[in-house]
Write a structure and sequence with these properties.
single chain; alpha/beta; eight-stranded mixed sheet; two-stranded antiparallel sheet; 10 strands; 33% helix; globular; binds zinc ion
């Protein structure tokens, strides 16, 4: 389980005002908002998913976001990465996104790490309460999964391609399946425990394209799962599939692979 979040200091009047629409909810307490403020989250990938996730978490008041992406802003990004502007072309994504975060919510701290996670994973902070995978390739996703298991940091995974997306929360508990239990590292396809129509999730937007609204749907679900996990300190491992062509969302039954090389011990 992740480190228990301490939330000792009171919210200021400015914070109470800023987060008032949260606090009006029947089941959303000041303590929840203080817990969110104390949270530290790693956002891996700052493209269409990661940028929107980071902006939503910043707006919600997450205390610190560590951003990872080795790329710079390209013109083809602007169709869906609406936190960048044309003036950002050529700039490192983590730097431009960090500036947007501060403009949106000056209470939030961030670090901009312009390299591919987890190339320097041994030096990365171990105090994250959640790690969010917003990358676009299986090699990095499996590496993030192993890091999550090693450090017992819950993983929220997202993927989007064409009109279909996938969101998963993997809580790293011993009895729960991990990402690699569900997706095979050898074949880069889903195991039989998940429907076959998610297998193309391993392909990239650069190859097949993606409808821009899908990124908003998937990233919103990822940030929602993160905030719910912070508020309740626990959630079961679960995978959801979303298809914007049919407007369907369904959860998948997932089982632990007894031969998984990532979580077997
Ligand atoms: Zn596993």
């Amino acid at each position: 389980m992740p480190a228990r979040i301490s939330s000792s200091t009171e919210l200021t009047d400015k914070e109470l005002d800023r987060y008032s629409r949260h606090l009006l909810l029947d089941d959303f307490t000041i303590e929840h908002q203080r817990t969110i403020r104390q949270a530290q989250i790693g956002v891996i990938g700052c493209g269409g998913l990661g940028g929107l996730v980071a902006m939503q978490l910043a707006a919600a008041g997450v205390g610190r976001l560590d951003l990872f992406d080795e790329d710079s802003v390209e013109v083809s990004n602007l169709q869906r990465q609406l936190f960048f502007t044309t003036d950002d072309l050529g700039r490192p994504k983590t730097q431009a996104l960090g500036e947007r975060i501060k403009q949106l919510n000056p209470h939030v701290n961030y670090t901009a790490n312009q390299y591919r996670f987890p190339d320097s994973c041994q030096t990365q902070p171990k105090k994250w309460h959640i790690i969010i995978d917003c990358t676009d390739n299986f090699k990095t996703r499996f590496a993030i999964n192993r890091w999550s298991l090693q450090h017992k940091v819950p993983l929220i995974s997202g993927a989007a391609i064409e009109y279909q997306g996938l969101v998963g929360l993997l809580n790293t508990q011993k009895q729960s399946p991990c990402y690699q239990c569900i997706f095979s590292e050898e074949s880069n396809t889903s195991h039989s425990g998940t429907p076959s129509d998610t297998t193309h999730i391993g392909q990239r937007c650069a190859d097949l394209g993606v409808i821009n609204s899908l990124l908003g749907v998937i990233s919103s679900l990822q940030s929602h799962l993160a905030l719910e996990f912070l508020r309740h300190s626990h959630a079961p491992t679960k995978i959801w599939q979303i298809d914007l062509k049919t407007m369907q969302m369904r959860s998948s039954h997932t089982t632990k692979d007894p031969f998984c090389s990532a979580c077997y011990n």
